[in-house]
């Protein structure tokens, strides 16, 4: 799935952690991934997102912890 399609399906805007500072959503597929303004983890809706399921993603909090590719290396 490309990022454009993911942005249409992404549910970050409904998430309690989400802060709108004009960034594109679908953080799971973005580069570098992390948001510049979202810092506090207040719950993540990614496990219920159609993109997460279709892509077989494993991680959460992409906006804070980085995209799906970057997270396996983080502690
Ligand atoms: S998995 Fe999370 S970051 Fe990725 S599109 Fe869905 S809600 Fe957005
Ligand atoms: S990546 Fe997860 S925690 Fe961050 S805004 Fe999207 S749903 Fe919320």
Structure description:
By secondary structure, the chain is mainly α. 23% of the residues lie in helices and 0% in strands. The chain is built from 3 helices and no strands. The termini are far apart. Bound molecules: iron/sulfur cluster (2 copies).
Shape: globular
Taking pLDDT < 50 over at least 5 consecutive residues as the criterion, the unreliable ranges are: none
- SSE string, helix = H, strand = E? HHH
Characterize the largest beta sheet: strand count, sense, and whether it forms a barrel.
none
Kindly estimate the percentage of residues that lie in beta strands according to DSSP: under 5%
Bound molecules: iron/sulfur cluster
Helix content: 10-25%
Rg, alpha carbons = 11 Å
The domain count comes to 1
Q: How far is it from the N-terminal to the C-terminal residue, by CA?
A: 27 Å
Number of separate strands: 0
Secondary structure category = mainly alpha
- Tally the helices: what do you get? 3
Kindly state the mean pLDDT as a whole number? 94
Give me a quick take on this structure.
This protein has 75 residues and is an all-alpha fold. The protein has 3 helices and no strands.
């Amino acid at each position: 799935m490309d990022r454009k399609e993911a942005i249409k399906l992404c549910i970050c805007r409904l998430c309690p952690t989400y802060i709108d500072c004009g960034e594109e959503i679908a953080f799971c597929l973005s580069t570098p991934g992390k948001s510049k303004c979202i810092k506090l983890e207040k719950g993540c809706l990614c496990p219920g997102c159609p993109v997460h399921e279709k892509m077989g993603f494993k991680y959460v909090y992409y906006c804070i912890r980085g995209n799906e590719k970057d997270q396996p290396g983080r502690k």
